[in-house]
Amino acid sequence: RKEVEQDPGPFNVPEGATVAFNCTYSNSASQSFFWYRQDCRKEPKLLMSVYSSGNEDGRFTAQLNRASQYISLLIRDSKLSDSATYLCVVNILTSGGGADGLTFGKGTHLIIQP
Amino acid sequence: DGGITQSPKYLFRKEGQNVTLSCEQNLNHDAMYWYRQDPGQGLRLIYYSQIVNDFQKGDIAEGYSVSREKKESFPLTVTSAQKNPTAFYLCASSITHTLNEQFFGPGTRLTVL
After folding, report:
1. Phi and psi dihedrals of A80, rounded to 5?
2. How distant is the Cα of B106 from the closest Cα of chain A, in angstroms?
3. How far B98 CA lies from chain A's nearest CA (Å)?
4. What would the pLDDT profile of A33-78 be if each residue is shown by its tens digit?
């Protein structure tokens, strides 16, 4: 089973709509979760961290479901500028169970249509 | 301004040549990383360094080498042993290796002619 899995899309969504996508992770002991945004031919940029209590930043809401081992990203009132690839990121664990670095999902491609 | 810089932005290399990609950060981060991204694909970890004078192989280290002589700098050498080096190379850093988010430089796009 892959450590981090995302639906690659593309998700084609009309401007102004609400869109949500999930990401599943394999290790129940993972402790850090993030969403990154990557524009075409650019570097990934941190969008938001995902806390156990959820996290909201303007039109963006991220949630963590530990029981089902997934995180979600909700975008409300989508803008043309939201078109990008969204990467789910989870920390990985060593064989001893300690925290290690981050593993990146392959991303979900979002296209906002006018 | 604090951040991560990579140079050059575009690099062309002839087959059989070694080439070194630069990565510098002034964020005072302990950990630094090199990733490779191929078109339409995810990030793959080449090497990482948790602290000065230490580095570890990632998932695809063959054909690459690194050094970490200074906290601010983590250069990557793509050797002639790397069979398919054409890709987008991204450098990142984080406060520490565990748990913290990573911040990326703008990347170097390497093309082998």
Report:
1. -55, -35
2. 5
3. 5
4. 999 999 999 999 999 999 888 899 999 999 999 999 999 999 999 9
